[in-house]
Amino acid sequence: MKRVMSALLGLWFLAAATIASDSPFNSNVPDQYTVKRNDTLWDIADHFLNEPWVWPEIWHVNPQIKNPHLIYPGDIINMVYIDGKPHLSLSRGRNVKLRPQVKEIAHTDAISSLPLDIIDTFLSKTRIVNVGELELAPYVLSGYEGRLLSGEGDSLYARGSFAENENFYGLYRQGDPYVDPTTQEVLGIRAQDIGSVKLMAIDDDIASLNATRTTEEIRVGDRLLIDENLSVDPIFYPSAPPADSDGMIISVEDGLHSIGTLDVIAVNLGERDGIVNGNLMAIYKIGIEARDRIVGDTVRLPPERVGLMMVFRTFEKMSFGLVLTAQRPFNVGDLVRSP
What we know:
This protein is mainly β. Helices cover 9% and strands 36% of the residues.
C-alpha cells in the first residue's frame, strides 16, 4: 500500500501548504516508522512533524497506489531524499502472495484520522437542530393505557406529520441553545437524546410506536425526529481553515469547567465561515488583566496559545471539534484561530 498514504496525505493538507514552517520535521526523526494497529493519522503526522498540517509539502506521492484513502497497520513510512531534500513516502509492509486471486481488505482495518470511539460516543447522544425545528416535529401523545412515562420495550402513541416510508425515529427533548457570546445569535438548539422508537402502525395523524432504546424515561411531549446516521467518516484529514478564522469556544461536552486533551468542544464557526471537517484550529487562552504599575492603568495581556483542536462535525453556524493537544487547561470563552 505504498501509495495508499501518498495521495491520501497529498489531499490531506493541500489547503495548508502556505503555512509550513522552515523546519517541518521534529528532531531525531527516524528513517522509517511502521504503522501500528492503534495509530491514528494524527499520531503519525505528529510523530514526524512540528506542525502536522504541512504534510503535503514533504510527502512524496507514489502514483502506483490505487487507493489514496487507506493506510493499514504494517505499512512503513520511510524518510527519503529527493533532489537533496527530505520527504516521506509509504511502502507496503505486509506480505503479498504473488498468485492470481482476489484480495479483499476491509476498510475497517485501515487506521483512522482520530480516535473515533470518542467521537462516535459523543455523536450518538448529541444532535443540533434549528430554532423551531423540534416544535414542528411529531410528539409523544400518550404511553400505553394513558401512562405519562414509558420505557424501553413499552408501547406508546405519538401525533403529528410522519414521513412516508420512515419507520425508525429518534426521541428528543429540547436542550439548551448554543449562543454566540459576542453577537447573541442563536447558533443551534441541542436536542437531548431520549431514545429510539419503531413505528408499528399509523391511523391518520396518530402513530403506534414501540420503544426500542431509552436513555431515560420517555415523557409526554418528547419529540420524534427521523433517525440520522451520525457516524464519522474515518477518511478525513487535518487541514488549515480559512486564514481569518477567528472564533470562540462556546460549550464543552458534559459541562466541564476546565477543558483538556480529548474533550469535545463547540465553537462559533461553521460552514458559512468556510469551516470543514478536518480543519485544525489553534486554541488560545484569553490573557488576564494586569495592572501597569508604571503608567497606573490596567491592560489585558495578549492571548496565549495553549492547544490544538480538529473539527469533526460542522453545521451552518457552529462546529464540534476534538481537543488534540492541551499544554494547560482552558475554558469556555477562550479563542480558536487558524494555526
